[in-house]
C-alpha cells in the first residue's frame, strides 16, 4: 500500500467514524459548559477560603509564639562594631583582595584555619 493510498483510506475511515458520533445539541453543550464553569468557581472559592484561613491562622500562631533565642543573638552581643567607611579593595592578576575594616574596640582572637 502506497503512502497516498494509506492517507486516503485513513481520511475515509475518519469521516465515517465522525458521522457515527452522537454529537450533543447546542442546548446540552451550553448546559454542560455552564455546569463546568460553575463547579470550577465553587472549588476555586473553597480552596481560596481554605488558603486564606490557613494563612491567617499560621500568622496568628507565629505572631504569638515567644521569641526563640538563637546562637546568632548571643554572638552579635560579643562582636565589636565596625568603623564607618568602605573596605580597601586591591586587584592584581584577576584576583581581588579585600582588606576588612578595623573594629572600634578589641575583639576576641580567633585561631586561623590557614
What would you say about this model in short?
This protein has 114 residues and is mainly α. The chain has 3 helices and 2 strands. Strand 1 and strand 2 form a beta hairpin.
Strand order of the largest sheet: 1-2
In quaternary terms, these chains amount to single chain
Tally of DSSP β-strands: 2
Share of helix, binned: 55-70%
Beta fraction of the residues?
5-15%
User: Strand pairing plus helix content: what structural class?
Assistant: mainly alpha
Low-confidence spans: pLDDT under 50, at least 5 residues? none
Sheet of most strands: 2 strands, antiparallel
Shape: elongated
Supply Rg.
36 Å
Number of helices: 3
Mean pLDDT: 81
End-to-end gap? 78 Å
Order of helices and strands: HHHEE
Features:
elongated, mainly alpha, two-stranded antiparallel ribbon, 114 residues
Can you characterise this structure?
- A hairpin with a 2-residue loop joins strand 1 (88-92) and strand 2 (95-99).
- The chain has 114 residues and is mostly helical.
- Strands 1-2 form a two-stranded antiparallel ribbon.
- It is elongated, with a radius of gyration of 36 Å.
- The termini are far apart.
- It has three helices and two strands; from the N terminus they run H-H-H-E-E.
- It is 57% helix and 9% strand.
- The model has no long low-confidence stretch (mean pLDDT 81).
